[in-house]
Write a structure and sequence with these properties.
17 helices, SEC14-like protein 1, 25 strands, Helicase, Ruva Protein, domain 3, alpha+beta, Phosphatidylinositol Transfer Protein Sec14p, PRELI/MSF1_dom, about 725 residues, about 25% strand, SEC14/CRAL-TRIO_domain, single chain
Length: about 725
């Protein structure tokens, strides 16, 4: 498995030339880096106008590794080759390094870059990316990997400290400014003169640690080879896409190098695959924490949550959801100031809540919607408190008062609704609960706890503090977590709490099972997105009739399963009514309404209908948004077609895998979730689906015809 490392952007509030002067003081050796024994210049060259300087060094390190491991490898020191390319004209320093020996067993590759801050030319930025690939090492692969990760992590903060140490040293010497490079007339006697120093004899070494030039802000992230992005990509992204180290500390908290790197890499992957729908950094970090910063696991649950939020329009819940009056009157929960850590405080008087009455009056889905709105409000309050208190606040504290809890709270449908709510919240709002204070737990509480605890994540359960009777009033109780001035009056405090006292919901407000069922169907089908299944030989097609020329067809779809090909066709005549049994060749019937075919098999492409966009292949997990400006009225057909893998080119015989795949209908099924909208050209700009600023190779055909006023379109695919 390849280990990859990515640093955030580190900022030195000093000019580039001064930082370079401090950097050069680290050679040939640095007393601040005990493991950095020595370095020798192998080659060096300078351009005629002195604007470009290239130097190659061989660095000698004394790695802190077990003596036994060194004896087995037969070495005492570790050697690296490091190449520096300093461009005075562009004010950049690119550093590339790799291990010199045992490269057939261990491959370490690092890239560092110093550059001018994009918004302040008097500041300097630093970035680094690295990869570690241990193919084999005498059976000690795991040990070597741990040593490398430990050495990297321990040197990250030290790297910036060393530069700042030499900057202070320069200041003490009275050097606070160095002039920038400026071109001068070339000298007729000067030429490019490479200086080559013979390399020292190479002794067997092991490649475990990075050279000191790159012992800076490395971030560690353990992930598989499928992780997106290459080493060079890490240093060419636009500044707006990068995370600043100071920003991370201010708004996200103190993260370890491993955690910073995981956040950066997962964030970059989301930018590549979910453009326009990137969750906030705090939200990404919550999912990483929920999976112990395992990128693959965090990515899986985060993508599932993003799809869920999109399908049910959860992002708009606070603006669209209006709580029924019965919730205002009988739901015994509400926000109440904040705890001593600045976290928003939510109080729930569960013992006073008539769970049976609320379920009978509202239904499970309405209760769930209300709880989701509470969580969305909690996220908003966390952002506000982060600004107010000047430190990262990413979760809230919940105080649950169980006074009055009895057997009626164990009503089976009520417990079922509670478990459903816990399941949804755990999946989509991980690491939002900082602390749960359970007060006045009665004897019946262990029964309820036995029922619900298996559905609560272990990390969440560790945040529970349970007090029986009046234990919360003593040492180690409520006053340790909440300021005395805001303890609610019903708990012996002096602060008035606006949380409703609850009570029994009148039976006159109860609704019939049929009414509740219809309401639940309405709640969870109120989505602008539709789902469709695509099978081999049975594409899904959507008909759009255009009356006015120059209308704009926009689309937004996610490929939930399998790979599909997206096409757009135009026809002057309406297709036949959609066929409902497209899977007859498989001997099965598709679910009603989620697979429709419009193009008749007797139609000829180019005669009965024409293609107005080049086909776009979309991979599983991709989000695709785009638009097409129509030229002609008529009927436009959006088609999602099953994408078959290309057959083996070296033989005409079918592969075994292909034969087996034909026996499994499930392997020939794809699924998409889509939304389309037709806009007038005057309404296109500013629409929630307009993507006029997004372009890709998808619109090659359209781009070719735009010049002849036949068509205009733009499209974006997020990979």
């Amino acid at each position: 498995m390849v280990q990859k490392y990515q640093s955030p952007v580190r900022v030195y509030k000093h000019p580039f030339e001064l930082v370079m002067a401090a950097y050069e003081r680290r050679f040939p050796t640095c007393h601040l880096i005990p493991m950095f024994v020595d370095s020798d210049v192998i080659s060096e060259e300078t351009s005629e106008d002195q604007s470009f300087h290239k130097i190659e060094r061989r660095c000698k390190l004394d790695v802190d590794a077990p003596r036994l491991l060194k004896r087995i490898a037969g070495v005492d020191y570790v050697y690296f080759i490091q190449k520096n390319s300093l461009n005075h004209r562009e004010r950049t320093l690119h550093i590339e390094s790799h291990n010199e020996t045992f490269s057939n067993r261990v491959i370490i590759h690092e890239i560092c870059c110093y550059s001018v801050h994009p918004e302040n030319e008097e500041w300097t930025c630093f970035e680094q990316s690295a990869s570690l690939d241990i193919k084999s090492f005498f059976g000690f692969e795991s040990t070597v990997e741990k040593i490398a990760m430990k050495q990297y992590a321990s040197s990250i903060k030290k790297g910036k400290e060393i530069i700042e140490y030499y900057l202070r040293e320069l200041e003490e010497e009275g050097i606070t400014y160095l002039p920038r490079w400026s071109p001068c007339p070339p000298s007729p006697t000067k030429a490019v003169v490479p200086v080559v120093i013979p390399a020292l004899p190479i002794t067997p070494t092991i490649s475990i640690e990075a050279p000191p030039e790159c012992l800076n802000e490395i971030q560690v992230c353990k992930e598989g080879s499928s992780s997106p992005g290459s080493l060079n990509d890490a240093l060419v992204a636009s500044p707006d896409d990068k995370l600043d180290a100071d920003y991370i500390k201010r708004y996200l908290g103190d993260l370890t190098p491993l955690q910073e790197s995981c956040l950066i890499r997962l964030r970059r992957w989301l930018q590549e695959t979910h453009k326009g729908k990137i969750p906030k950094d705090e939200h990404i970090l919550r999912f990483l924490r929920a999976r112990d910063f395992n990128i693959d696991k965090a990515r899986e649950i985060l993508c599932q949550s993003l799809t869920w939020r999109k399908q049910h329009q959860v992002d708009y819940l606070l603006d669209t959801w209006s709580s029924p009056q019965v919730l205002h009157d009988y739901y015994t929960g509400g926000w109440h100031h904040h705890d001593k850590d600045g976290r928003p405080l939510y109080i729930l008087r569960l013992g006073h809540m008539d769970t049976k009455g609320l379920v009978r009056a509202l239904g499970e889905e309405s209760l769930l919607r209300h709880v989701l709105s509470i969580n969305e409000e909690g996220l908003r309050r966390c952002e506000e408190n982060t600004k107010v208190f000047g430190r990262p606040i990413s979760c809230w504290t919940c105080l649950v008062d169980l006074e009055g809890l009895n057997m009626r709270h164990l009503w089976r449908p009520g417990v079922k609704a509670l478990l459903r709510i816990i399941e949804v919240v755990e999946a989509n709002y991980p690491e939002t609960l900082g602390r749960l204070l359970i007060l006045r737990a009665p004897r019946v509480f262990p029964v309820l706890w036995t029922l619900v605890s298996p559905f609560i994540d272990e990390n969440t359960r560790k945040k529970f503090l349970i007090y029986a009777g009046n234990d919360y009033q003593g040492p180690g109780g409520l006053v340790d977590y909440i300021d005395k001035e805001i303890i609610p009056d019903f708990l012996g405090g002096e602060c008035m709490c606006e949380v409703p006292e609850g009570g029994l919901v009148p039976k006159s407000l109860y609704r019939t099972a049929e009414e509740l069922e219809n309401d639940e169907i309405r709640l969870w089908t109120e989505t602008i997105y539709q789902s469709a299944s695509i099978f081999k030989g049975a594409p899904h097609e959507l008909l759009i009739e255009i009356i006015d020329a120059s209308s704009v067809i926009t689309w937004d779809f996610d490929v939930c399963k399998g790979d599909v090909i997206f096409n757009i066709y135009h026809s002057k005549r309406a297709p036949q009514p959609p066929r409902k049994d497209p899977l007859a060749t498989h001997g099965i019937t598709s679910p009603a309404g989620n697979n429709v075919q419009l193009i008749d098999k007797s139609w000829l492409l180019g005669q009965d209908y024409s293609m107005v966009e080049s086909p776009l292949t979309c991979k599983e997990g991709e989000s695709v948004q785009g638009s097409h400006v129509t030229r002609w009225p008529g009927f436009y057909i959006l088609q999602w077609k099953f994408h078959s893998m290309p057959a083996c080119a070296t033989t005409n015989l079918p592969r075994v895998d292909d034969v087996l795949a034909t026996l499994q209908v499930s392997s020939h099924k794809c699924k998409v979730m889509y939304y389309t909208e037709v806009l007038g050209s005057e309404d296109f700009r500013g629409s929630m689906t307009s993507l006029e600023s997004s372009h890709s190779g998808f619109s090659q055909l359209s781009a070719a015809t735009t010049s002849s006023s036949q068509s205009q379109s733009s499209s974006m695919i997020s990979r």
